[in-house]
Amino acid sequence: MEHAPLSQLEQRLMAHLQLLYPTLDHKELARQCLATFFLDPATESPRPHRNLWDQSDVMLITYADTLRKKGEAPLETLHNFVKSKLACCISAVHLLPFFPYSSDDGFSVMDYTTVNPSSGNWDHVSSLSEDFKVMGDLVINHCSSRSMWFENYKAGVEPGASFFYEADPNADLSAVVRPRTSPLLREVKTQNGEKHVWCTFSHDQVDLNFENPDVLIEFLRIIRLYLEKGIRWFRLDAVAFLWKIPGTTCINLPQTHEMIRLLRLMIEHYAPEAVIITETNIPNQENLTYFGNANEAHLIYNFSLPPLLINSLVTGNCNHLKQWLMSMPPAQQGTTYLNFIASHDGIGLRPTEGLLSEWELETLINTMKRFGGKLSSRTTPKGEAKPYEINISLWDALSGSAHQGPDQWQFARFLCAAGVMMALEGVPAFYIHSLFGTENDFERVDNTGHFRSINRHIWDMDELDHALNTPTHHQKVFNSVTNLLKVRRAQPAFHPNATQYILHMGENLFAFWRQSLDRRQSLFAVYNMTDQPQHFNLSELNLIATDIWTDLVSEQVYEDHLGKVTLMPYQFVWLANKKGKIKDD
């Protein structure tokens, strides 16, 4: 009996499975994967190198329950706020984990298939996805020690009995790269005796064992559920640690990259408009590998941007920021960067490795501590504690300079940071608190005992409405950032894949040139990174003499192409030869 030839999808899927599970029946496993995902083997492959975004794409990062209103599900409150206040300036919402959890504000998932009842339900998520692109977290490396899977693991029953990664406590695990200082292994009493499970992050977050294909099948089921509920962007949380081989660093292993390629293959065949983002808070060169050959992540987080940009603004010297960006390869079509300067976590310091000297890093840490920041550490393979991240709100991080301390330029410095992020190659992502200028929440740190809580404030909706409708710095930040975003979204030169060249204008002025994909719009972005006025001549920018150049920020027209421009502390200009049409609210 002749068998039908394998489809292209089946062949590609089997190739990934063969590398991940060399001893198994790849054809049968491929059949299982496709059946779990409800995929017809004959499904056509989407065209490669498609840009699934443009200059209008701006992401909001938020917890499901950051905004709370009495008598209303937080997800509903969030949807109402985003729809009424932010529809003009964002296109996508990253909902941080909204599932039942036991710790780490959601990243210790107890049940991947339900919405935390205190936040809402799946209907709220689906409703949000009808108005905005929604990015969900796939917490793929680990789950809660209070999950049903782990309870089953201890009882020796499936699903769960074989879902977790075990290790020999006597094995040499000294090479393992860790983001934490807690012991790597946790001793657990099970029905089958005493075991030691692998915990990359905390003893409440037990690592899953993807060497077992049943774990892969379970996650395909979870991903399909998310797709059915309207989620189209997927953030692969802590994915760099996914595959473990004792005796290695257990980070960025070839099998991890292979697994990402497999997940992308499945997801984009189910939904060709879907997007995968890898969350890999690691040194820059390692981070870049997650693009693969435009067949892994569509977007990678620009993890070096937050520490380098903040460092530039508090020191008044942009050399490191400039040198780093000059070393960054333009993203291939179909891939781009996710730019951010604040998140639910802290300012990661691993991405500064090889970019800032020890002395410069120490200066940055001490400055952030002066502004109320906290320092979290990790353990190196040699057992040493090393700075891992600074925990601080962006508003307070930019409250002054390294040499003067707090000053009167906090708002200007804050807006300058936002202006840089918006204009760089890639998709800008704003943590919700960066839209409000939310301050350090020391009370929340005291209540939770965790430094990261400093930047995870919960806003009462009535209090937020009052803050945004009265003359406060919250109102000033919100109005200025959202107005700037409206301008940004209208400019073809700000397409995430538009050309970018870094300009040399000294250590105090940060500048770059963007050009739209059709080459019609040119835009020069120039920023004063200091607390003193700075001057430059327009002749340095090589403006096209026959064009009329307008600063899109102030709307000032520059007719003298050889004239001198003075930028006040932290002032910036977006000089463009054409103005994109800004949509009305």
TrEMBL record:
CDD domains named among the record's database cross-references: AmyAc_Sucrose_phosphorylase-like_1
Record key words, sorted: Glycosyltransferase, Transferase
GO biological process: carbohydrate metabolic process
Source species, domain of life: Bacteria
Keyword Glycosyltransferase found: yes
Gene Ontology molecular function: any one: glycosyltransferase activity
Matching PANTHER family: ALPHA-AMYLASE FAMILY MEMBER, GLUCOSYLGLYCERATE PHOSPHORYLASE
UniProt protein name: Sucrose phosphorylase
Species of provenance: Marinomonas aquiplantarum
Lineage: Bacteria, Pseudomonadati, Pseudomonadota, Gammaproteobacteria, Oceanospirillales
